[in-house]
User: What shape does this take?
Amino acid sequence: VKLEMHRNVEMFGAVRINDVQRIFEIGPGNAEEDVVEGEIITPSAHRISDILGRMAIIVPIKGENLKLLEGILASIPTRCLVLVLSNSDRKPIDRYKMEAEAVANFCRASKHSCITIHQKDAKIAAALKDAGYSTLLDGYGRVRNGKGEAMVLGIIFAKLFKRQYVGFIDADNFVPSTAYEYIQSFAAGFSMAKTPYSMVRISWRYKPKISAGGLYFRRRGRVSEITNRILNLVISDFTGFGSEIIKTGNAGEHAISLPLAEILQFASRFAIEPYELVNMLEIFGRGEAPEFKKSVKEGVEVLQIESRSPHFHDNKGEEHLNEMLLEGLASVYHSNICSDRVKQEIVSELLSRKAISSADDVGKPRVMDPLSKIDFEAFHSRMRLKTDTIQTFNLNNEVLNLPDMGAQG
Ligand code: GDD
Assistant: This one.
C-alpha cells in the first residue's frame, strides 16, 4: 500500500486526529522495509501481512443478499479472521441458516478462517450475563437489535480469538472488491500509527447517486455531511479554533486496535460511529483521565484514509437515513462536551430534515459499558458449552471447543 502522509494534524488533549490521506497503491506491494519518499510512505509488505494476520474482520449482516455476502468474503484476505455477525430473520424463513450454509460452502473452498454467529443466540446472551456484561441485553435477556450491538459482540469474539485489531465491513456493498481496498488501508493505517491506541476510518472518495439522469459522483452522503459539520462544530467549541478535520463522522468502514476498543464506550445501533469520536474526546480530550494513565501517555490516534473506489451500497430509503442521522446526532447532543450552541444546531438540522418534530424527540441513545467490564474467563468458559448458532470454519477450535465445519466436504 502506498499512502500520502497526512498534511494536517489536530490535537485535543491526548487525542490526535490526522487529516485525510490519499492512497497511491492499493495492493500490499513488495517493499522489503518501510519506504518514505517525499510525501509518500510505503509500509513494508511484511508489516502489512503481519497486521492482517492479527486482525479480525467483522461483517454485520441483517437480511442482505447472499451474493453480496460471498463477494465480501472473497475480498477479505485469508490471513484475517472473519466474523459474520448476523441478525437476520430466523422465521418464517431461516435466513441465518441460509447465510451459514453459504459461508460454509464458500469457506470450504477458500479456506478462510471464519465464524458465523447469530446475534440472538440465547446461550451467548446467557454467557454475557454470567460474565457481568448485561449492557448488551434487552429486557428479555437477549442481545438487543442493532448494528452497534453486533459490532461490540464481534469485538468480544475477536478478543476471545486473541486478535489485536478489529475492522468492520458492511455486507450490503454492491462492489465487494472495495472491501479489499478498505482492509489494506486499515493495515496501512495501523502500520503508521504512533500509539497502540489507534483507529483507522475510511472516507469514501465518492458516494454515487443513481438517478434517471444517470450517475452523479457525489463526494459524501447527506447524513455524513451533516454529522461531519456538527462534529467539527463540537471540536471548534472545545478548542476555540474553527476546524474541518473530521471527514469520517459516520464511517461504517473503520477499524480499531483492541487496546483502544477495550477502553471506549460504544453507543447503540447507528450512533456507534459518530459516538466513537465523541467518546474519545470525552475520555481523552482534556488529557486528564487518571484511570487511563498509560493510554493518555501514549496518546490516541485517529487516521482517516480516503478510498480510491466509489462506494455503492443498498439504498434503504429516506426514513432509514433520518433514523441514522437522528441516532448519530443524539449521541453528540447528550454528551457533556456538547455546548448549547451545538445543541441548537443539532435541533435545527433535525427539524429541517423532518427527523424530529421538537427538541424533546432527541432521545438519549444507549451507551454501553466498556469491554473492560467483562469477566472474560467466565465468558470463555460458558462459550465452550455448545451454542445454538455458532459455526467455525478452518480454525483451531481449542478456543470454542466446536467441530471445525471447514474440515468437512
Ligand atoms: N448483525 C446486525 N444486526 N447487522 C445489522 C443490523 C443489526 O441489527 N442492522 C444493520 N446491519 C447490517 C446491514 O445488514 C449492513 O451489512 C450493515 O449492518 C450496515 O447497515 P445498513 O442498514 O445497510 O446501513 P447503511 O448502509 O444505511 O449505513 C452504513 O453506512 C453509514 C455511513 O454512510 C452503516 O455502516 C452506518 O453505520 C454508517 O454510518
Observations:
- The chain has a mean pLDDT of 92.
- The radius of gyration is 21 Å.
- Residues 60-62, 64, 85-87, 119, 145-147, 150, 170-172, 221, 223-224, 250, 252, 270, 273, 313-314, 316, 320, 324 surround guanosine-5'-diphosphate-alpha-D-mannose (CB under 6 Å).
